[in-house]
Amino acid sequence: MLSSAKSVRKFPIATIYRKGITPEPISSPISSSILQQSTSSELKEEEELGVDKLFPCDVLQAHWVSEIMAMCPKWITSASLVSMQIQIDCPLEYTKPMLLFLRNHQHSFFQQMDMLAVADHIGEPLRFELSYGLRNVMYWNNIRVNTFVDELTHVPSVSDIYGSAEPLENKAFDMYGVFFKDHPDLRRVYTDYGFQGHPMRKDFPVTGYTEMRYDDSLRRIVYEPVEMAQELRKFDFLNPWYSDDPRKESP
Predict the structure, then answer these.
(1) Per-residue pLDDT of the chain (251 residues; tens, 9 = 90+)
(2) pTM, rounded to two decimals
(3) Residue 116 CB burial class (10 angstroms; 0-12, 13-18, ≥19)
(4) Measured distance CA(18)–CA(154) in Å, rounded
(5) How far apart are CA 21 and CA 51, in angstroms?
């Protein structure tokens, strides 16, 4: 324990852990004497810096992030620590080696992959943001590894590192169209055979392209193009997700 005080206290920490700023390695850990010197004025949030005070357990994680960034300087572009959640950003070509490092290193030992989330930033050159959620049961810790990719680039599969990544990559391929190379069995898992497009993309229409119904005469399910029953409905064919949408400029 860093402090023997009965009540848990917050204390200030350097702002080098904000996203987009490369932190410098910390040579010596924070001693208990420094914790006792913090006054009540230091416990207030520094809104102008955008940094909140951290608990001692957060400081330990901040030291650990600095250690990882010192060992992998080329693999990590930025790191952040927000509400006990560690997040690091990696270039696409270093994402798989970074995950392998986090799984095998004795100071990280993230043996489980619980999540693979995808965010669609339509209109950006690197449209898709991939976020790998890793868990360490031994040290009771979580981390998220983020990377960005465009629509045409193939993402290296990490199913050979984490077995749970295989169905998660299938879901990302089905919903967003992110292709994972070297995947053992890449397929659609939620949509039907012959489905057009990827439903979670922001340029996919809400109504879809086809509709499904049961035909009594044919006694089977048939697929037909979507027909809108509202004759007076107006369509402007503009996508509000784009940053250059003229409707965002009007009051």
Answers:
(1) 444 444 433 333 333 344 444 444 444 444 444 445 444 444 444 444 444 555 566 677 888 888 899 999 999 999 988 777 899 999 999 999 999 999 999 889 999 999 999 999 998 999 999 999 999 988 888 999 999 999 999 999 999 999 999 999 999 999 999 999 999 999 999 988 778 889 999 888 877 788 888 989 999 988 888 877 665 556 666 676 776 666 666 55
(2) 0.69
(3) buried
(4) 30
(5) 13
How do beta strands 155-156 and 180-181 pair?
parallel
For the chain, what is the largest distance between any 2 Cα atoms, rounded to a whole number of angstroms?
Answer: 84
Helix, strand, coil shares of the chain, percent, nearest 5, are 20, 25, 55
Question: Any idea which residue has 């920490």 for tokens?
Answer: 13
Let me know how long the chain is: 251
Tell me the C-alpha distance between 130 and 144, whole Å: 10
Contacts of 63 (CB under 8 A, 6+ apart): 26, 29
62 exposure class (CB count in 10 Å sphere: 0-12, 13-18, 19+): buried
